[in-house]
Amino acid sequence: MFSHLPPYAGDPILSLMEQYLRDERPAKVNLGIGVYADGQGAIPVLATVRAADAELAKVQAPFTYLPMEGHAGYRQAVAQLLFGADQPAPEHLAVVQTLGGSGALKVGADLIARFFPQPTIWIPDPTWDNHIGIFEGAGFKTERYPYYDAQTKGLAFDAMLGKIAALPKGAVLLLHPCCHNPTGVDPTRAQWEQIVDAIERGGLLPFFDLAYQGFAQSLDDDVWPVRECLRRGIAFFLGNSFSKIFSLYGERVGALSVFCPQKNEAANVLGQLKLTVRRNYSSPPMHGALVVAKVLGDAALRTQWQAEVETMRVRDMRSKLHQQLSRAVPDRDFGFLLRQNGMFGYTGLTVAQVDRLREEFGVYAVGSGRICVAGLNDGNVARVAEAMAEVLRG
Ligand code: LMR
């Protein structure tokens, strides 16, 4: 019956995690998957999450089904966090709770594929590997636009803008509003303005993937490109995730928001999103969303949570890695580590160097050369820098 099924080649991030877990070396370091670990190397349960959890436990609500679109209070809290005071009126905005950020991409991709036949999505080069899997899985063709310049270890801005400006009307454009995964390289505010100009002029449909709100500058600054599209009345999709910024990875808490500039389109969009959810998994899970809604809906907890987001910005570990690498390999410039935003460092290490890091030193990085800086701590940063220096020396 199943003999024609080929073996699964594995996922560049999740299969690496499985390999890490099987590794019995005590000094192994996981810099593969994008997960924040604290100074002791543990994945923290945020104090605000504990507090919200304790409150929820006082009233044991039944484990009933949520509606297809998710928990109403959660959806409201999400819209408030994403759009702040500029929150659009309900007749312009459709928000559904999703299974993390990946779920938001999948629901959005399915919706677009149903109503815009034979769609193509333009993704940055490089991007998170699973963008390709999710969009191609939903029936999209994927095309790339220039993003990262390996020479300068910065943004290939002119090439990027040139490509975006030449896209056909209605083209779907995937954008990371902050903390680009995997490079950590983000456009400046002035560059974003030009990108939004090109989107507006070209009549493009941006699809924002926001997994790290608050990890670059601030919760508000990091969604500036999205709010600018809103301000200009440009239709967009926005998938967001609370996995990282609430340290709620396994709860799968996310949302998909669709901004509809034409009044009264949102009701039909929301209806079709509900249908998409129903056809995929009926309705989302409850607990993580209740926790997030509780924290965001309580002024004191929300302030405390904002401070917790700041502690997860990993600026100090970037500096420590930069310092130690610069000392160990003085003829190389590691300044890019300080300029990149978010959880990741895009090191420029080759596949062979990444393999050597893992096999000889037990340091796990993604094959693209991406390391999760949020996996570093005072107990392992020196060892990691030494191992990186060793493979760089050849
Ligand atoms: C990552 O990029 O490491 C994370 O977004 C986790 C994942 O699902 O790939």
In short:
The protein is an alpha/beta fold. The protein is built from 15 helices and 13 strands. Helix content is 43%, strand content 14%.
Give structural notes.
Keywords: Aminotransferase, Pyridoxal phosphate, Transferase. It is an enzyme of class 2 (transferase). The chain has 15 helices and 13 strands. The model has no long low-confidence stretch (mean pLDDT 96). It is 43% helix and 14% strand. The protein starts with 13 loop residues before the first helix and ends with a helix. The longest helix has 16 residues. The chain is globular, with a radius of gyration of 21 Å. The chain has a seven-stranded mixed sheet. A two-stranded parallel sheet has the order 1-12. With 394 residues, it is of the alpha/beta class. Helix 4 runs parallel beside helix 5. Strand 3, helix 5 and strand 4 form a beta-alpha-beta unit. It folds into two domains: 99 residues, Aspartate Aminotransferase, domain 1, CATH 3.90.1150; 257 residues, 3-Layer(aba) Sandwich (Aspartate Aminotransferase, domain 2), CATH 3.40.640.10. The site of (2S)-2-hydroxybutanedioic acid has 6 residues, from loops.
